[in-house]
Amino acid sequence: MTPEGNLLIGQQAVRGPGAAIHAINPTTGETLEPGYAAGSQAEVERACELAWTAFDTYRETPLETRAAFLEAIADEIEAIGDALTERGMAETGLPRARLEGERGRTCGQLRLFASVVRAGEWLDVRVDPALPERAPMPRPDLRQRHVALGPVAVFGASNFPLAFSVAGGDTASALAAGCPVIVKAHSAHPGTGELVGRAVQAAVAKCQLPEGVFSVLYGSGREVGQALVRDARIKAVGFTGSRGGGTALVHAAQSRREPIPVYAEMSSINPVFPLPAALKARGEEMAKAFVGSLNMGAGQFCTNPGLIIAEKGPALDGFIAAAGEALKESASQTMLTPGIHDAYTQGVEKLSRHGQVREVSRGKSGETPNQCQSALFVTSAADFLKDEVLQEEVFGASSLVIECADANEVKQIAEHLEGQLTVTLQMDDADLDAARTLLPTLERKAGRILVNGWPTGVEVCHAMVHGGPYPATSDSRTTSVGSAAIFRFLRPVCYQNLSDALLPEALKESNPLALRRLVDAKRES
Amino acid sequence: MTPEGNLLIGQQAVRGPGAAIHAINPTTGETLEPGYAAGSQAEVERACELAWTAFDTYRETPLETRAAFLEAIADEIEAIGDALTERGMAETGLPRARLEGERGRTCGQLRLFASVVRAGEWLDVRVDPALPERAPMPRPDLRQRHVALGPVAVFGASNFPLAFSVAGGDTASALAAGCPVIVKAHSAHPGTGELVGRAVQAAVAKCQLPEGVFSVLYGSGREVGQALVRDARIKAVGFTGSRGGGTALVHAAQSRREPIPVYAEMSSINPVFPLPAALKARGEEMAKAFVGSLNMGAGQFCTNPGLIIAEKGPALDGFIAAAGEALKESASQTMLTPGIHDAYTQGVEKLSRHGQVREVSRGKSGETPNQCQSALFVTSAADFLKDEVLQEEVFGASSLVIECADANEVKQIAEHLEGQLTVTLQMDDADLDAARTLLPTLERKAGRILVNGWPTGVEVCHAMVHGGPYPATSDSRTTSVGSAAIFRFLRPVCYQNLSDALLPEALKESNPLALRRLVDAKRES
User: What is the DSSP string of B216-240?
Assistant: First the structure.
C-alpha cells in the first residue's frame, strides 16, 4: 500500500482542488511525495452530506455489527504491515519501536471499544414501568436509552500519528457510540493518515455499512476545519492539539446557530510534587526517572512532566543536580515538525533569558535538523506566582523546577495551577499527611493523580481519565482515552408509553439484548 | 414563618444594599410586602467565598450524611406548612392544589436524590488492577470515581416556584453531587423563595454542614446573575427560563478565563403528531384532551403542546373544529406575572395578525388582571416552512395547527423543527408504519417521545429525560429532571497507584461502601 495523495470521501478517493500539502521528513528536511491537494467547502459539503445520510442507519446497527466493524478496522490497519510504520517514521521522525507500539495501542483501543459496544452498558437503559393505579396520577411507562449525537468531526493530533489521529481514540469512541466520523487529518503526517483512512474505508465496505460512516479530509490553515465545525450536520467535535487551535474550534462551535460540544485536549504541564521524605530518601533515583519521562518521545507527550514543585533545601538541591547531570547526557531527538521544533526553541529561549529563571543544564545538541535539545530550569515559588508566562506549556523536553519555602507554599502553588491532565506525587510513607493535605487541591486540578510514577504513558482501559479542568481540556466532564470516552458522543432519550412494536431493541420489554437495566430503581444483575 | 425580605448568605439573613424588589400578586395587581433589597457584587463575593470554603468538606461528606441532608431539606419544607402555599398562591396566581402538588413533587425529588446518593452508582467506580507481569509494560493500578465539579449557580424559574426554584431540581441534583449551591431566586416569587431558602438553611444547620453549602441571592436585571456566573469559584450553572436569558448566561460562562458548563432549559414548542388512523378514529376525543393539556397551568409549562402537525383532510378539520369549540369554553386563568401576560398577549396578537395564519378560536377572556385567554391558530406546512417566526415559543395557552399535504410533508416539517423537550405521537395500530418512519427524526429532535399522551406532566424518576437538542436546552447530553441529572455536576478522576491509605473511601480495595464497581472490565453484582 502506497500513499496516493487523495482525500477519502465515503468510498471514493478524491483529488482536492486546493494547493498541495507535503509532509516533511523532520530527520532529513526532505519533502515527501505525494502532495495532498487541500479540500474545499465542496468536499466538506460532500462528506457531511454522506455522513448525515448514513447517520440514522449507522446509529441503529446491531451492537454486534458495530463491534465487528471496529475489529475489522483494527485488522485492516494491521494488514497494512510495515508500509504504515515506514511512512510514519518518514513523516514524524519517531522511531520504529514507538510506532509499532502505537499501532498496537491503536488497534487495542479499537478492540476495547468493540467489547464496550457489545456489553451495552453505554446504552444506560432505565425502565420505570407504568403504575396505572397510582393516585393521584398514574405513572406512564418510561424507558430511557442513550442515542448517538450525530456526525462527529475529528481533528488528528501531530504527536500520535496513529493513536490520536485518523483511527485514534476520538474516531474509535465516536464510531462506537454510533456516530459517523469525518477526520480532518493532520498535515504533518498525511500519508500515514491516508493509509489508515483506506483501512477504515475497507472495513466500511467489508461490513457493508453506508459509505458516509467515514471520510478523511486534508487542508492547510483553518479553512477546512472551520467549515467542518460550522456545518449544521456536524454534532460534536474531537480535537487534540494546541490551546489556540482548540479555543478557535470551541468559538466556532459556540457561534453556530445550534452550538455543539467540542472535546478539545489542549494544554497541560503535568506538575510533579516530590514530597520531603521521598525526596530525601531517593532524590537521585527520582531525578533519573524524571529525566527519562521528560525525554520520552522528545518530550512531545501531552503528559510530559513540565513542572517539579518541592520544598527547597539540600534534598531538592541534590535532585536538581542529579537531574541536571542526567539531562546533560540526554541524546537529542528529532521533533515531529519544523514548526514544533521552532516553537520549542523559542519557548526554551524565553525561559533561558527570563530574569527570574536559572538554567540548570541542557541536553546534547543534535547535528541533524529539528533536534530537541532537552532543558531544565529552576525558579522560585514567588516568581512563579508573579508571572503567568511561567505556567505556559513548552511543548518538548523542557521542565521547570519550582523551589518553595515550605509545605504551605507548595500548597499555594498547587492552588495557583491551571487545570491539568495529570498531577503526580512522589512520596514515601512518611509523606502521607503531606499527600493528604494536597490531595483535595489536586483533585480539583487534574483528571489523573499518580503516586510514585511518571505521567507519560496513558493506559487504555476502563478506569483511565485523560482529561481535566480547563485549559487541559475544554470539557472536564469526560475523558478522551479509555472506555468512558464513548459517553462524549451520546445523549439520553426517554420513551413514554411506546408499544413494544415501536420501541427500539434495547428497550423492549423482553430485553432481547440482555442488557443490565435499571428497572424500577433496581439494578438487574 | 413569614417572609422577611432578606438575602440568605450561608447561615446569615442579610439585607441587600440595592433597590427593593417586590412581588406582585398577579390576580389582583397588588404589590406584596416585604421588599427584597437586591444584592450587589459584595454579596455575590461573600456567598462565593463561603461556597468555595465549604466545597472540599461538603463534597467528601459520607453518602449517608448527604442523603440525610437532602431528606432534612424535604422535611423542613413540609414543616413550613400552609404559609408556603399561601405565599406561593399570592406571588404566582397558581391555585392551591397545584402548589400543594408541586410541593409534594419537590420534596419527592429531594428524597429521590437522597436514595440516588446512597446507592452510589453515580460514583461510577472503575478499577483496573495492576498487572506487574504484563509485557512489554506492566499496568499500574488505576481507579476512577466521579467528583463534584464545584459550587453551582442555580437560577430559579418563574413557572415552578417550588420544583424548579430555590430547592428545585437543579439545587437537589447539585447538592446530591456534592456541589454547594448559590441560588439566584426568581424576582416573581421572592417570598416563596425565602421561605424555602430558610428551610434549606435550617437543614444545613441541623446536619452540621459548613454554612457555605447554600445561599440565596436576589437581584433585578442581570447584574447579580452575571456577577455570579463570572465568579471564578462557580464551576457550573443551572437555569430554567427564556432563550434570551439562557443564551446570555452561556455567553458569560464561555467568556470566562475558565469556561464552565451551563445547563439552560430554554425553549420548546412540543410538537404533537396526530397520525391518520388515530385522527380519524378519535379526533374529537383527542381534541378535548389536547385542549386540557394546552390550558394546564394557563399554558405556562415548558412542555406545553404549542404545535399540532397532521395531514389535512376531514379528520383534521374535525379535530380543529372540536378543539376550537373546547377552547371557546376554556375559562381564563391568571398568568404568573404581568410581564409574562404582556409577552403572551403580544405573541398571540402577532399570530392573529399574521397573513398566513388563521385564528380558529379564543378562550374566554378574564375580568381580573393578567388573565390568559387561550388561543388556537392554523397555518399550512408551506407557510410554516417559510417563516421562522412561526416556530417561536409563545409562552402560554396558545397553539398552532400545521396542515400538511401528505405524510412526506409531515416528515419534512419534523425535519425542519428545532430541538424540543418533547415530541408526541397520537397513533393507533394502523399508524405503526407511519410512526416508524417518523421515529428516527423525532429521536434527533427531542429528549422525550410520547405516544398517546400529552407532554405536560413530567414524572420525576430514573428514566425521565427533561432536556433535548438546542434550543430546548443548551446541552442535550443531560436531563434536568430525574435521577440522571446528578451527572451534570460531576467529573471523573483517575487515581494511579495510590495506596489504600490515600485512596478515597469509594476506591479502597475492600470496597467499604459496597459499591457496584467495574473491576477489570467485569461488573460486580
Answer: EE--STTHHHHHHHH-TT--EEEEE
ω into residue A471 within 30 of 0, thus cis? yes
Report the chain A residue with the minimal C-alpha distance to residue B428: A499
Q: Name the pTM for this structure.
A: 0.98
Helices B169-177, B96-119: axis angle to 10 degrees equals 20
Cα end-to-end span (Å), chain B: 47
Question: Which fold does the domain A271-451 belong to in CATH?
Answer: Aldehyde Dehydrogenase; Chain A, domain 2 (3.40.309)
Architecture in CATH of A42-123+142-266+476-488 = 3-Layer(aba) Sandwich (3.40)
Q: Which residues of B491-516 are buried (b: 16+ CB within 10 A; e: fewer)?
A: bbbbbbbbeeebbbebbbeebebebb
Question: Buried (b) or exposed (e) across B249-274, using 16+ Cβ within 10 A?
Answer: bbebbbeeeebbbbbbbbbbbbbbbb
Pair type for strands A307-311 and A358-362: unpaired
- Chain A residues in contact with B122 by the CB 8 A cut-off are none
Boundaries of every domain in chain B: 43-266+476-488, 271-451
CB-CB neighbors (< 8 A) of B479 in chain A: 492, 494
Asked if A147 contacts A490 with a C-beta cutoff of 8 angstroms, the reply is yes
**Residues B333-353 pLDDT 10s:** 999 999 999 999 999 999 999
Tell me the pLDDT tens digit for each residue of B149-186.
999 999 999 999 999 999 999 999 999 999 999 999 99
Q: What is the pLDDT of residues A210-236, one digit of tens each?
A: 999 999 999 988 899 999 999 999 999
CA distance A476 to A495: 29
Domain B43-266+476-488 has CATH 3.40.50.920: no
**Within 10 A of A512 (CB to CB), how many other CB atoms are there?**
10
Is B509 tagged catalytic?
no
Angle at A357 between CA A352 and CA A361, to 5 degrees: 55
Closest CA to B417 of B267, B246, B295: B267
Within 8 A of A462 by CB-CB distance, chain B residues are: 126, 128, 144, 518, 521
**Nine-digit cell at A180?**
459517523
CA distance B248 to chain A (A): 12
Catalytic residue among B107, B302, B372, B404: B302
As given in the structure block, the three cell numbers for residue A365 are 545538541
